[in-house]
Write a structure and sequence with these properties.
Length: 338
């Protein structure tokens, strides 16, 4: 199956929810919710993408010729690329009837593992969503990161225990989901978390805990104080707050503040291996990619996830070969034209 075939299939299978645009930049879907759009003006989704495209890459092919190594070590494991699938939920509501959250995660987790990376999975009001994700991760030998909504602390800790039983390699909590209106009026509503509450969560497990939804240096320092293994710089794809900066705009300052002391992941508008290269050069350790993996799974199932991952990986390797980076640690800000 080719990437073009996957895209063509996805356009048929998404039923008008998402157009599987050749350029996934938020222009066509803009404020389409239900659907893949962003909140309010829809500007944030577009800004995430546009600000990445403004950054250019310096060509330099005078260097020692060695094989390019795109691998990265995280969570005590080695991955083929510094790329992970981001957690996305409410599939039928936002992307069409072909998949619910459980069947989507079955394909995504398996495909990501086959591609040599891992998927972050989502959570929801229905406990079967999280439970189904854990089943997929367990079937993949623990290669996956279940992401837990910011429910009350005791429920988060219980879900972490379930992740431990499923042999998950790490857990995450998307604290920015505390702004999701549809989760405010449920029996156990989501809510912001204090440093003390986050510390209670991180200290309740030996698993690495990643805090997703960090957009400021202050927020990163709070997560570090709470004992997080890492953070995901993320504005939730523009779906929780309008008028935020792009994730790549806040990355350099956050990396300067906490880089080397905790792992830094980033999402938001990352589509190609060139985009991955850019954010690594600005201080990220790895990336999360969301909407394109939905397109890949709706267009080709687990195989679609493999094909898309390989596409991004090849683009990253080719970019490294044209900039003098033989391994990920060679990538630096001097390789960018800012």
């Amino acid at each position: 199956m080719t990437y073009q075939e996957i895209m063509e299939n996805a356009r048929k299978n998404m039923g008008g929810f998402c157009n599987a645009c050749k350029e996934c930049n938020g222009v066509v879907c803009k404020t389409k919710i239900p659907g893949p759009g962003a909140k309010g003006t829809g500007e944030v989704f577009q800004r995430n993408y546009a600000k990445l495209q403004e950054i250019k890459i310096n060509l330099d092919t005078i260097f020692e010729d060695e094989p390019v190594d795109t691998s990265v070590e995280l969570f005590g494991k080695k991955f083929r690329y510094p790329v992970f699938a981001a957690p996305i939920g409410a599939m039928k509501l936002h992307y069409g009837e072909m998949h619910d959250d459980i069947t989507y995660n079955v394909e995504l987790v398996a495909g990501c593992k086959d591609a040599g990376i891992a998927a972050f999975t989502g959570d929801g009001i229905n406990p079967q969503v999280y439970g189904g994700a854990l089943q997929s991760i367990k079937a993949a030998g623990g290669i996956g990161v279940p992401t837990i909504k910011p429910w009350d602390v005791e429920l988060v800790k219980e879900k972490i225990r379930q992740a431990e039983e499923a042999d998950a390699m790490a857990v995450a909590t998307d604290i920015d989901a505390s702004g999701l209106a549809l989760l405010k009026n449920v029996p156990t509503p989501v809510s912001p978390k204090s440093v003390a509450e986050l510390r209670e969560i991180t200290q309740s497990t030996k698993l690495p805990v990643i805090v997703k939804g960090i957009m400021t240096v202050r927020g990163a320092l709070k997560a570090l104080e709470a004992g997080a293994y890492g953070i995901v710089i993320s504005n939730h794809g523009g779906r929780v707050l309008d008028q935020t900066p792009a994730t790549v705009e806040v990355l350099p300052a956050i990396a300067q503040a906490v880089g080397g002391r905790m792992k830094i992941f980033i999402d938001g508008g990352i589509r190609t291996g060139l985009d991955v290269f850019k954010v690594l050069a600005l201080g990220a350790d790895a990336v999360l990619i969301g909407r394109p993996y939905v397109t890949a799974v709706y267009g080709g199932g687990a195989e679609g996830a493999v094909v898309y991952t390989q596409k991004v990986g090849i683009e990253l390797a080719e970019t490294m070969a044209m900039t003098g980076a033989n391994k990920l640690s060679d990538i630096n800000k001097e390789m960018l034209y800012l």
